[in-house]
Structure formats: C-alpha cells, structure tokens
Amino acid sequence: MSRYHYVYLILATLVLGPVASAEEHIAQPFVGVTLRGLFLDDPRPLTIWVAEIDLTADGISFLVTPGNGDPNGSEAGDPNAETTRQTTLEFLKEQNAQLAINATFFGMSARDTDNLGLVVSAGEWVSPFREDWPSFNISSDNQASIVRGKHDTYQVTSRSQHENLYNAVTGSDQIVTNSKATTGRREFSTALHPRTAIGYTADKKLILATVDGRQPGVSEGMSLLELASLMLRFGSVQALNLDGGGSTTMVIADPEPRVLNTPSSKNKAGECGVLRKNGTNLAVFARRNPSYQRTAPVLRRANRGQAEQAVWSD
C-alpha cells in the first residue's frame, strides 16, 4: 500500500468512521500542484477532490472573478450587482487557467449579482466585507491569510507578515482556526451538503477541496465538522467553508478543460452535473508538469453501478 493510500484510509476512518472500501486517484498535472480524488463507500458514499498547491512553486498565481464595472464601488448597502455570474468552467476557459473552484456566496436572482462578503480581484475591490464573515486572502506574493473587517476597513487575524488584499474571497464559517476545528451546531453546520473549502498549511501550501452531495448512493455530502476534519487531515492551520450546494465545482485544464466533480444541480431529466453560474470563482495558474501524461480516462462505477464518473488512470 502506498503512503498516499494509507493516508486516505486513515483520513476516511478518522473523519467518517470505519471504512469498508476506499478508492483513490493521485496526479501531479502541474508544477507545485498535487491533485487527489477520494471515493468512499462507507459509512456513506462520498466523492472528494483535494488540490494541494505549493505557494512557493515557480509559476503559481491566482485570480478571483473581477468586477463588472459597477459605478457604486464598495459603498455599503446599495445593490451593487458587482459581478456577472458564470460557471467555474467558463471562468477557467476565459482566463486560460489550469485549475479553478467556486468561491463566495452570492445572490441568485439575476445574472449580475452581489456577493456576500469581501471580494478582491488582482488588487481591485469588488465587494466590501460582510461583518462577522471571514475572508481568505492570497497576497500578490502568494501569502495566504484570514482577514476580517467592516465595509472598507480590515483586520488581519493571521500571523502573515506580508499582508495585502490582492485576491480575496469570503466564506460563511472559519472551520479551522489555529489547527483546531471551529464549527457551530446550527442546522447548516450539522446537515450533510455538498461543500467547498479553502485553507492553508504551515508549510505554505494552499488546500482546495470539494465534496459532492445530495446524490443518494453516489455522494451524500458532509457536515462542517467533517469538512474541518478533512482540511485538518491535509495540514490546514486555517480554513474556511465557501459557498457549497449546487455551486460546488472543481475544474481542470490538463490540457482539455473539464469538470472533476459532479455538481448537485439537476437537468430536466433529474440528472446531476448541471453547472451553476456563480458570483465568483478562484482560478489557479500553474506551469505544466512535463512528466505528466493524462492517459485514457477510466470509468469509475460508484456504489456498485448506480452512477459512473470518468477520472484519469494512473
């Protein structure tokens, strides 16, 4: 058994209880990026994707969805319609990025939307702080930190010595604080949902994770405590819960752009996998790993034939 297989079985046991079976895929498609897929059958079916990004690796950079030119800027309380919604896959293609996930919670009533909390794109403020909601910032020199604030002021709550608001998104909860799980007991925290999380480690790695949910027999979601345990298992010292549910998406271009997970939104036939247009997404830019060769995808049949998902073969 490889070291990574051992880590995953320990992860599954500690986060979710005794595990009868687990399947794992690992790849390094880009310099400084390790991508892992975990497929569990017990104690409930789960599909998990985790990207570990070395913030010090050559060629690594990021971009949050830019604003759409709203003239009201960060003025509090007005309907800014700050960003134009697009799917995570559309954003990845538009920016020629290598990896991307969905990010900040947002209003879903229109194509142009407001975002629930701080959004900063390449140094340009798009949306102001939401009081009591934590934000995640990646500075221009790839220093990750948690920040909090009110409207156009902010306070750094990490130990980063190189703070500047450059690419920032906001989550509903800080699920890991100083290497400890910090989740509440409200229904949103304890219910099983599709989840998206972002965190960073002490050795300067960014952790991005998606967990599929609302797909009985295929992938049934996690609580926030389980999500925190997942992020802790990958070494996160600080981590946030980002927008989840039907927004949860992770995409890659290796080199063909494609969706890794199976979003929970359904088409008219009741089939999951419909991509939601999100208010913000986070793109990762990285250099191609010259030794990576994506072979023909293998079909993984989840939960003994109830669903199929194409993944790479190692």
TrEMBL record:
It comes from the Bacteria. InterPro entries: NAGPA. Residues 96-281 form the Phosphodiester glycosidase domain. Pfam families: NAGPA. This is Phosphodiester glycosidase domain-containing protein. It comes from Bythopirellula goksoeyrii. The lineage of its organism: Bacteria, Pseudomonadati, Planctomycetota, Planctomycetia, Pirellulales.
